[in-house]
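Quick look at the format.
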Amino acid sequence: MKILDPHAIDGKFPAPDEQFDLIVVGAGRAGTTTAIRAALSGASVLLIDENPVAGAVIGNDVPLFFGGRATAAVHHPDRLVEQLFRANPELEAAFDAGVDVRLGTVAWGLYVPNAALRALPGPLLGIADAEASRMVGFRRLVLATGARDIAMAFPGWDQPGVMGAQGFAALLTRYDALASQRIVIIGSGDLALQTARLALERGIAVAGIVEIADRTEVDPALAEALGVPVFLAYTIAATDGGIDGVERVTLASLTDDATRTTLECDAIVLAIGVTPATELIEAAGTVANGLVQLVGDSATVQAPADGRLLAWASALGRHAPPKTIVCQCEAVTRADLLGVQPPRYLDRPARLATRSLGTLLADGPAHPDQIKRLTRAGMGPCQGRRCREQVRCLLAVEQGVLPSEVPVASFRAPVRPVPLSVLADWNEDAGMTAGWDVWFGIPTQWTPYAAIGTPEEAEHVTGLGGTLHV
């Protein structure tokens, strides 16, 4: 007779709610094409995309840096779905090919059996829509999650109207919900020129392109052909705004600080560079080869080189006072980060004043995850998407190393904001919960499931005012 340990985790994880040969995360052109090809070959395919993103989540700058420049149109999901089909007609072809297409559905966690997760019934992907969360199984997973913008802090960058080039393009084309008429673009590479062309095609004025170097990253003739002013060897000295955010930006020459130029605008678009959106696979850790594949921008995009990244961080931070916000979600300033202090809304005991990045470095290299725990930088709803790279650069400068030598802060599931009411809506049956202990293993504060509702439970909690299993 087989005897099962009621406290072991074997067999306690339920089977996935659904099973597919292939799951594709990201319904852009690369993801949609991959899904269609697999479906036509006879595979069962699930294609999910987090768009249309809920208006509240867009306000938290997830998954892209939208910068508070979305119109009220983002609060009308049906309209946004229509916009998505206009932006990517291949979605209809995916339906026709038999692909299970689910829009407005996020992938929040990836779990693959390994040494630490041997009890899993198989590889699982956690997904959630506005109503419920579920686990789906797969034989192969393709991530076509694209790329996200690299953000750098400068004076006044925490106002509405400062956004990333990817967020700008998404609001303008994917959602048709951009509240901006005149922009300034930071950067002069391909991404910056693409942003300028897109803006001009859509009737949005470009007040200027700002580059910290003394020449543009691309052929100067390409920028000149757009008829947009290009400010070489300039950085941002100040950003003024009103109740609706950015209204103007003051540029300062990097060769003569007294030389200033003011540009009227209602948005500043950061086009410094992008980095692959690989949060799912990063949070999952080591994944067996062949099980997960990256396609599209998530596989091909490269972040700017170390020298370029440091140059931007240094130039944009040149006029930034210590109180300049680095992590917008948690209101962590440059001074807080370098002083390794918690944000101002938390208590700061006197002994914390003796702590700084210098004292941490005396014990060895500082890791962004360590800095995150001590300062909360990167712990907000955007999970560091706006501050990962700049925290990395600040730590690199203080340690005298290159940014590539500093690890980036890790991601943890859920990698997208999911309401607890959705995430925790799991139906656990008695067979699955048998043997699970409810509390944290403190002898006086837990009751095993097997004892709930029995005389043993009543005896266990005598004098404690009732059961403690809830």
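Next, a different chain entirely:
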Amino acid sequence: MEITDLTPAEHRVWQAFSLGEGVDFRESPDDDARAGASWGPERTLRAEVLRALLLNGPTREGETAGMKVTGARITGRLNLMYGAVEHPVRLRSCHFEEVPDLYGAQVRALVLSDSVLPGLTAGNLRVELVLRISCCRIAGPVRLAGAQIAGAFFVNGAELGTPSAPDEPHAPDSPDPEGEAEAVLQLNHAVIGADVWAVGLVAHGQVRLNGTTVAGQVNLDGAVLNAPGGVALYAETLSVGTDLRAMRLRARGTLNLSGARIPRHVNLAYARLSRPGGTALRASSCVVGELWLREAAPVQGAVNLRRSQFDLLHVPPEVWPGEVKLDGLAYQRFAPHLPAEARLPLLEREAAGYLPQSYEQLTAAYRTVGDEAAARTVQLAKLRRHRRTLPPYARIWGHLQDVTVGYGFRPMRAAGWLLVLLLIGALVFALHPPRPLKSDEAPDFNPVFYTLDLLLPIIGFGQEQAFAPEGWYQWLSYLLIATGWVLVTTVAAGITRSLSRQ
């Protein structure tokens, strides 16, 4: 391209390129790129001119060439497909009329902050430093699948996609919504050498990070993800070096983190997750350090944590939804530390029904922090829940053990029952002593020790063998013997459980 073919605005950019100097076309710092369609020729650049500069522009010895343009209207399609750009590219607060095509390109740094674009095609892009689309307004999809960015990716404050009309019907739930519509941000299978910085991102559609590797953290603090009836964040098998931060996140649609590997925190404090009638949070088969939902709003939709591993679950009871999926979930501790009665309702919400492993896991978590009383409460709740799954005839013995000694987890209750029966028996037999079997050999009758002989099948005081009650008193003695056996066997079972835990 000859320099004589350039407009005055393009000539300014051409002259500044070899020196790496910036060209600012803005009339004021408050210029909004959304009004760029009305900008005149004095701030209009042709995409073919920018392409010629970036791929084969003039350089000067001792100077670092680079493109730094602010506040320009860019007409035509900036086509850098498979191109190798050896200079940094900074096109801030610009208005692009067509979708730039950087598929397979190699650039040192790409900065499009505060610009307005109809979309961005940059699959398999290679960036030596950073990629910035901060505060951009991009109506169409941002395609960065397979990109490799040596530094960080900045998309903070950007607005991607087009908001749906308030009365526009949402797509119905689907068993596999991931492939229903094109994502507004496609960063799947990308490799990021530092962080993904997406604070305050607004996405009207799906954000796709499945299979992505991020060496640092993913920061979605204050982001708004709108994909009603679909998947708002599709991040299956995401691998993060440190944290996934999403404090104050607003998500309408599923957060899908299945198979993710996040060694420190998934921080959803103060978040609002909503997908009524579907799954709001799917974090199955994950390995995560800590999951935080502190001060979050009650989740609207199911939560799926099946087969995942966590060191800590910091989730207040009121945050859990009406349906959870916990089969195979493993964790070390729950926070905040609460009585077992506050955590047990969660296990009743299991979609698959009664799962013994969920009770054992909660028991182990309480024992980890040394709360043995809470652990016993969970075990008692487990046996009661199991009893509801048995046929009616098998529940009778369970009810009897529960009422008497709480399946052995309430041994003081057995002492109370024994004391009550001892008082009843002693009083009855004191008023109506049984006749001696051999009057000349029988010891003096003692109603207290006679009742103890009936209640305790192992210990004998010689009273039971020497006296024989008659009539309904004989039936009372049978009842005391049978009840004594129940109490002794259940207490023995409780002692056996305690010893096995030790």
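The longest helix spans residues 472-501.

See the schema section for token definitions.
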